[in-house]
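Hi L.,

As promised, Stage V sporulation protein R:
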Amino acid sequence: MTAGANQLQDYARRIEELAVRLGLDFYPVDFELVPDNFMTEIAVYGLPVRMPHWSFGIRYIHQLIQQGMGHSRIFEVMFPGDPCHAYLVNGNSLPENTLVVAHVLGHADFAKNNHLFRKFMEMAGGHILEQAAARAHAIEMALERHGQEKVEAVLDAALALEPHIDVQSELHRSASAAMPRRSEPTAPGIAALVAASSGDDFRRRYHQLPGETMQLALEPMTPRSPSSATPLEEYDLLWFIAKHAPDMAGWERDIFLAVREESFYFYPVFACQIMNEGWASYWHARLLREADFLPQDLYLSAIKAHSDVVRPYAAERQLALSINPYHLGFSMWEYIIEKQGLEAARRICREEDDFGFIRNYLDAELARKLDLFVYATHTEGDIRVASRDIHAIREAILAPKFNYGAPRIAVTGIEQDGSLELTHDHRSDGSGLDMARADRVLEYIARVWRRPVNLHTVDERGYARDISSKRKYM
């Protein structure tokens, strides 16, 4: 372990002790130093080891372009759980990684105490890394058994529907068990800072994870006939297809349920992003400020990194046309604590998600202070302020977060010929569909439903459209 890594480990231990004295209550955190290219893979795949799919490769290239242009830099990736897992770039400076350690402890406190994180962790378990690695291994076995074309067709459909879950329902629904529920592997909970000597060593360690021997069902299940008692409105598309698709094999159903379980795990991260990043930023600033054991020059460098993270705009631009969740969340928590005190902030942290946080605690005074507004792009290409009304600002911030950021689409029936009927509830999500994308997703679904799939929707201009999968299956 290098001198810098030893120093970071010492600072991490002392910052953790300070966090406990200040009242933070968090799951143990396993910190890991990893190479920059591996960090990029984690950020793109969403997990250190995950089921393989071509779409992740496209995202990886996009991320490299963004980083090369200076538009994106990854300081850390943290996975909530018991323990939490946090990854730091080993090429970052000591001040940057010291700040990241403090930031992660704020995330760990949020994950343990926020009601939404607690609810979904109870359902999905606290060992996502081990579970995801086991699924990836099982899918590799399916690839060997069934071939890339068949497995990729199932992954295409499942990942295209990744956000289409019903977050109001339970993960393990009583009628949905296509395969028995598997026991969760056990992971050690000792907080430590480990410097990986290379990416290859890091990868090899994941081949030893508990659950590596988990297998997807490799034999076809008994074909299911379409149900005449189909629910009139079922928004959990992944669950419905895994349960009702007439001719899916067991391993195909397992892939759908695996993607669904990961989607449940990630939902609180999506639904609480502004709160969570703001809470972590508030606490990393406070922890660094009160960490009198840090050298002055390190503290100043870390605070410079903090300023870069929580500023509202990029580079030298003085006007931001998109929300930086770090800046908005940090500003709101500072404002709440100043006006109402830390205990009130802790209560809000426990009880709210971003919807309640923004609607209840972003007021007109703070919006003016932060210079928030709603803008519109005109046909000539110019951008103008459309509104500074606080209600319009709140809803503009929250609009992309509605329904996991996806169109609200429900299964509304199965016809006598087995055709699957889908209906887009465009009134509730307030937008039409991109027809080209909708066509592609319908084709993906039809490959696994193996019957025609029909979607009733509106296009981007609001005109009613009915589209159907083009492939013939009957």
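The first strand starts at residue 29 and ends at 34.

Thanks again for sending the construct details.

K.
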